[in-house]
Specification:
- This protein is of the alpha/beta class.
- It has a domain at 8-134 and 159-185 and 235-243: 3-Layer(aba) Sandwich (Rossmann fold), CATH 3.40.50.150.
- It has ten helices and eight strands.
Length: 245
């Protein structure tokens, strides 16, 4: 499966505006690991998830196939960043107590990645993958966002985005699932902060490259009348987790 690079061009925007993950998620995922010695954060992007796990793991390998994303990652003494594909990590067998994939599983070759997980996971190792789709703000604002997402930039989303819209329910998962509690990312944002986040969307960037039109100003103008103050933005999180061995 050829690496489809949808994020290198906006790696800095991704690092600046993508919301990080709640403590409830990080704490729950970490609690699944029988040992907390070494972990692999695969498809790490700019290292958001890897950084969150440094309170539990003293050695974290964080990889991504995008060199630009890795260059945007925040350094940490406990994290070793590397540009590597998910399906062929190069790590020794039985290396990791925990393997995480944050908002990236839909890009992977599933069969090859799961084979790699089986190879590098230690006995009783855990694979935890999670993602989030469209946010909820308010009925009026949600209608504007969904119209923009579906109609304006909808044709420019990569085909893999459908797996996100389906909340990972259609992704095969060959391990015995561990049910996750209900969790969500929540941020109190001004309109400018939300538009910064939207500017990191791959479909928006793809449309601008193909048509020469930046759809963000028009979208911002439409939102302005409804988004008059700070709003709570909420992204429900969905999780695929299981013990590998």
């Amino acid at each position: 499966m050829e690496f489809k690079d949808h994020f290198s061009n906006q790696a800095k925007r991704y690092a600046d505006f993508r919301p990080d993950y709640p403590d409830s998620l990080i704490d729950w995922v970490a609690s699944l690991a029988v040992r907390k010695e070494t972990m692999w954060d695969c498809g790490t992007g700019n290292g958001q998830a890897a950084l969150a796990f440094t309170k539990y793991f003293s050695k974290i390998h964080a990889t991504d196939p995008s060199k630009s994303q890795i260059e945007s990652a925040k350094p940490h003494a406990a994290i070793e960043y590397a540009v590597r594909p998910a399906e062929d990590s190069g790590f020794p067998a039985q290396s990791f107590d925990l393997i995480t994939v944050a908002q990236a599983l839909h890009w992977f070759d599933f069969d090859r990645f799961y084979a790699e997980v089986r190879r590098v996971a230690r006995k009783d190792g855990v694979l935890a993958c999670w993602g989030y789709g469209l946010c909820d703000v308010s009925p009026e604002i949600d209608e504007i966002i969904r119209r923009f997402y579906t109609l304006k930039i909808g044709p420019y989303w990569p085909v893999e985005r459908k797996l996100v819209d389906q909340e990972y329910k259609t992704i095969p998962f060959p391990f015995e699932k561990i049910e996750a509690p209900e969790m969500a990312i929540e941020r109190d944002w001004k309109l400018e902060e939300f538009l910064g986040y939207v500017s990191s969307w791959s479909a928006l960037q793809a449309m601008a490259r193909k048509t020469g039109e930046d759809p963000l100003p028009e979208f911002g103008a439409e939102l302005k009348n409804a988004w008059k103050t700070v709003h709570r933005v909420r992204w429900p999180i969905y999780v695929l987790a299981g013990r590998v061995n």
